[in-house]
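User: Could you write out the 3D structure of this protein bound to adenosine-5'-triphosphate? I've included everything you need below.
Assistant: Certainly. Input first, then the structure.
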Amino acid sequence: MADHHVGNLVLTDLVKRYENTDPAARPAVDGVSLDVEAGEFLTLLGPSGCGKTTTLRMVAGFETPTSGTISLDGADMLRLPPNKRPMAMVFQSYALFPHLSVFENVAYGLRIDRVRRARLEEAVEIALTSMNLTGLGERFPHQLSGGQQQRVALARAMVVQPSVLLFDEPLSNLDAKFREQMRREIRLLQRRMGITSLYVTHDQAEAMSLSDRIVVMNAGRVEQVATPAEVYTRPASVFVGNFVGRASFLPVSGVVVRGGRGGVSVFGKEVEVAADPGVGSSGVVMVRPESVVVSPVFEQGCGVVRSAVYLGAGVDYEVETDQGTVLASVGDPDVGGLLEEGTKVGLEVDASRVYLLPRGGGGGGCLASCWCSPPLAEPGPRCAIVSMPCPHLSRR
Ligand SMILES: Nc1ncnc2c1ncn2[C@@H]1O[C@H](COP(=O)(O)OP(=O)(O)OP(=O)(O)O)[C@@H](O)[C@H]1O
């Protein structure tokens, strides 16, 4: 199974407008271009209805694009029916044949390809072993757990040595704990075999843990293509920042000046913008909850705890401030104790973790440093804290 051909899958300006839909409405897929590198694990992530499944089904050949192209290693895939495309798909519903044994389910594609018996038996055994299904070949799907059925579906997809594996939300029918285990197994298997993989999910944790790169989609379009770390820390738009993880978005005002360097005001302090975010005169900063420190020891509050949710490993706070609601995740509730709703608190944020977004999308700039007012002894890049304008903080 190891010497399959890996594929470079390229989608260019793909559009899908379903028949009988309002011609004035946006197409289900509205100009998607992607380059999935050979051996890459690429995930389409986005809310329900954003066009992920339609994109995947066009790649598989189950839907015909209204326009655009799909090629694999330079070969036009649109000329080929689904069964002639060197791809295999794993479905959410497993789609096993109920009347066939596990062995025969996995062997199905090889039988269609008229693979000789000895070779077929060897390939199926290897596939079953690699999916931890040894000894289950004689069982029928109804005699297996959901996770085992999904493993059979994976073995069936891999045994035909596809150039591309397509996954349509394959883990959404599994319970949470099992889903995490399957995620790890899929990732390990995909790495080991190096099969180009296109994966669809609306679960951001799944996308983060599986993917080399994530494609965040919104209303039929691509909002951003980047590594999991990039989409999390440097989202291309408020939509992406909001969809991938939790975040607070606070309005800022300021002007970008002099070769892309300049300042904006965050929490009442001047903050230097390292790279030109192209925002003009206004924008929004994104702050992730884990970058915010809630300090109950401050004498005077600049926010009020609106909710405190104890999660075992930490506490999630919502703090109401003049600038809006700020989310804060505190790792260890034993440190400082659990803050009650209504408690006045001060907030601190690591400036290097604050990210400036333009309103309505476009580029973004990372806030590399800040200077505080009144100035510190050493103003400029050494100051790593962006603070709420609390009187006690000006004592620093
Ligand atoms: N066969 C169809 N005929 C008409 N419209 C369709 C058809 N299939 C999907 N759509 C519409 O196309 C849009 C995109 O659907 P699609 O299933 O691709 O989204 P998705 O991102 O995969 O969503 P989900 O996560 O809910 O599956 C939706 O507005 C949907 O209602």
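The mean pLDDT is 80.
User: Perfect, thank you.
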